[in-house]
Amino acid sequence: MLKSSKTERFSRRNASIAFRPNGRKLSYAKEAELVHLAISKLGSSGLSLEDARQLGIEVAGGTLISELHPSFHPIAALKINYFDLDGSPLSDIKGAPPFYRIRYLKTLTGLEDLVTKPQRYAQIPNTLPLAYFPRGYFDWTELSIDTSQPLIITEGELKAACACKYGFPTIGLGGVYNWRSYKMGIMFLPILERIDWQRRNIYICFDSDYRSNPMVLQALQDLAMELSDRGAYINIVSLPDVEGLDKVGLDDYIVAMGKTGVSQFQNLLHEAEPWGLTGPLWDYNNRYIYIRNPGVIVSLDNLAHKIAPTAFKEHLETAAKYPERVLKPDGTVSYKPINASAQWLRWGQRHEAAELTYQPGGERYLRNKNYHRPVLNTWAGWGISPIKGSVRPFKQLLGHLFTGAEPEALEWFIKWMAYPLQHPGTKLFTAAVIHGIKHGTGKSLIGYTLAHIYGKNFTEISQADIHATFNEWAESKQFVMGDDVTGSNKRQDSDFLKKMITQKELRVNMKYVPSYTVPDCINYLFTSNHPDSFFLEDDDRRFFIHEVIVPPLEEKFYRKYMKWLDNGGAAHVFDWLLSMNLKGFNPSAPAYKTVAKERMIDAGRSDLAAWVRQLMVAPDQVLRIGSRPFERDIATAAQLLSYYDPEEKTAVTANGLARELSRAGFRQANGGRPVKLPSGSQLRYYIVRNQDLWMDAPHSSLIEHLEHGWMPVKRSRRDARGRPSRQAASLEDLARDEALKESRPRKRRARR
């Protein structure tokens, strides 16, 4: 057997481990008896009296033991004192006396006949069970935070002390379930909460009877589950049978193996089988993160990749089946396949964030005062790093594309490109549109150059993406190029694009994933081959328009440019834009208005809008049917519609014309209020001539002008052959017709 020390004899020094409350002394014979009992018991665990003194273990006779508490039997026993991580006496409750447990050294006479299993341990009733940290062998405070150090957990204080003595940091439990207390509502002991379990190797080494005792087996698996939920790697140590022992404890094995006990136990630790899937689960934590709001899993390798929990369980990359070790009640071991992704979703150490955000230039994980957990920033970082160098090819490309343009336009565009790079996350008030009827001029090369800089934060979209139900293309993007994307001549399309350009929040809608909102930091560059690619209002402020009027350069220039771009040129452009002086550029100001923009506004107008603009410039030419002009300075929308569509071939209504008149800047007479006619009718009149004269004209002057001016053409009057009538109408007839139109239900017509 392994001896802890030379043969120990009774001496006054050895008797120093005796328990002497209030300084009481025992007889020489009594102390000698107690010491011999202690030596025998300690020796069976590979410990000596010197070890006992270091551990703070005391020995006392039955009388003194019974005096400690009425529930204790009057039997000689070891008083095992518990100590905190720093070596100070430990109490189960703050302010309570130091905690201890009693290990009886003998059995009470006749007690064996009354119970099948003699009581070996006792503690004061209604005290909380505590974990035992053997004093004097390790710095437990340091071990508690150093997760690189493995820990062993066993049942029994003397077993833990034995392992610690021989170099194995071991925590002792007073019982297999004494890591918790259901009775006191404690699911995990507070002192054990102070240990950092994450990614730490834990070896559970219960007595060998766990293979045959269902209660012990269940306790072992419950402890393993608890520690696994706290992120520990769990390993089960199976102690071999030892001849002559019904069950084998950790100390029994080390002592029984003699001189090889330590090395043999070390081999058992190496041979310990992993329990559970903690390893794969930590691997998942390195690859994925669960977002509480909106309840989605994000791939850390590709932040744009989102997976719903239901899909995650069956995903080819995540639904791998791992064998989990199962201990059966009969002591045998079996393995069953476990869906690791499903277990990861339930795991207490699951990598988790409160919500998603998108903040270019920010750290991966950001703090939010509203959440205990961090917020995941899906910004993927810049595609490249800036490097100082020549940008001559880029300047040559810009110079070619902006040939014939105002110098101020090119300067504005360069600053427009530079600002979001110098101020990451800035949402510019404007978008840039570069168009030209000639193909292959290099319009898109500007976007591809910026694509190198923005990396994963860049994407290219088509016309179909703009109105698509799902907009995953916009998620985690900082710069977007729309190649041949147009706003068409539809006002709703124009309004939608303007909203995209200026909105501060982005509602992300992805297939099979709950929608969520993140900051919108996207800036847009559109390229097109059509001069009327966007519908723009006269007072548009959001679009910078440039028209490329030159033919393409030689093909070799573009080949050389792409080669230069891929071999460090983009990094040089990045550095050049970062060093650009942005004085005078306001990211919230309207776009620089170019001549090309005026041309696009004209090209994009509808027939009605073009007619209204012509009306504003030359009313005498527009308001004419045959040789008859409209001689009044004011007119209703219905009257003007008679000149725009005298044969009623279009679906334009008087209301539609009125809206277009207002957009163009036509003012209404009488301060915008209806003019009351002598017949009692009230009509609104637009000023088509002499606006300054009629804006402040009194009501009487308006009536006089209407009564003595030339009569306009009546609308909707046809002769017997169905042709529009050209007869003049009186003021009273006109008012009557207008009143009749107002009383009739109007059919909905498509507006142009």
What's the domain count? 5
Strand order of the largest sheet: 5-7-6-8-9-10
As residue ranges, the low-confidence spans are 3-7, 710-732, 746-752
CATH topology of the largest domain: Rossmann fold
Main beta sheet strand tally, sense and closure = 6 strands, mixed
What is the residue-mean pLDDT, rounded to a whole number?
A: 85
Detail the topology: elements first, then pairings.
Layout: H1 28-44, H2 49-55, E1 57-60, H3 62-68, E2 77-81, E3 100-104, H4 111-114, E4 121-122, E5 131-132, H5 140-145, E6 151-155, H6 157-165, E7 170-173, H7 190-193, E8 201-205, H8 214-229, E9 233-236, H9 250-256, H10 261-271, E10 273-275, H11 278-287, E11 288-293, E12 296-299, E13 306-307, H12 309-314, E14 321-327, E15 333-339, H13 340-346, E16 352-357, E17 365-366, E18 375-377, H14 392-401, H15 407-422, E19 431-435, H16 443-454, E20 458-461, H17 463-466, E21 479-483, H18 491-502, E22 505-510, E23 513-519, E24 523-528, E25 543-547, H19 555-578, H20 595-603, H21 607-617, H22 619-622, E26 624-625, E27 628-629, E28 634-635, H23 637-644, H24 654-664, E29 675-676, E30 682-683, E31 686-687, H25 691-695, H26 699-708, H27 731-743
Parallel strand pairs: 6-7, 6-8, 8-9, 11-16, 16-18, 19-24, 19-25, 20-21, 21-24
Antiparallel strand pairs: 1-2, 2-3, 3-4, 5-7, 9-10, 11-12, 12-13, 14-15, 17-18, 22-23, 26-27, 28-31, 29-30
